[in-house]
Amino acid sequence: MELEWVFSLESINWQELSDLYRVAPLGDKKPLALETVPGKESFYRKLGFMRMTTAMAIFENQAQALELGLVNET
After folding, report:
1. Average pLDDT of the chain?
2. Which of 22, 37, 56, 60 is deepest in the core (most CB within 10 A)?
3. Is the pLDDT of residue 68 over 80?
4. Burial 18-55 (b: 16+ CB within 10 A, else e)
5. Are 14 and 38 in contact (CB under 8 A)?
6. Residue 17 burial (CB < 10 Å; 0-12/13-18/19+)?
7. Phi-psi region of 48 (alpha: psi -120 to 50; beta: other; left: phi over 0)
8. Domain boundaries, the chain
9. CA atoms of 36 and 56, how far apart (whole Å)
10. SS3 for 28-71, per residue?
């Protein structure tokens, strides 16, 4: 199986992602509900979280996390 990293929301098949959650099993997440998840990033930013390569995070020592490359400000 060939994997491809995609950094765009436009190419996401929300139904397939919903099916993946169900069979994982990570719960029953409807495709429409999954589409709204990226918009919650601003909520976390207001609380001081910074973007990680793979997630959002907040560290006790944010400066050190930036220096180590664990988070970035973009």
Report:
1. 85
2. 56
3. yes
4. beebeeeeeeebeeeebeeeeeeeeeeeeeebbeeeee
5. no
6. middle
7. left
8. 11-72
9. 16
10. CCCHHHHHCHHHHHHHHHHCCCEEECCCEECCCCHHHHHHHCCE
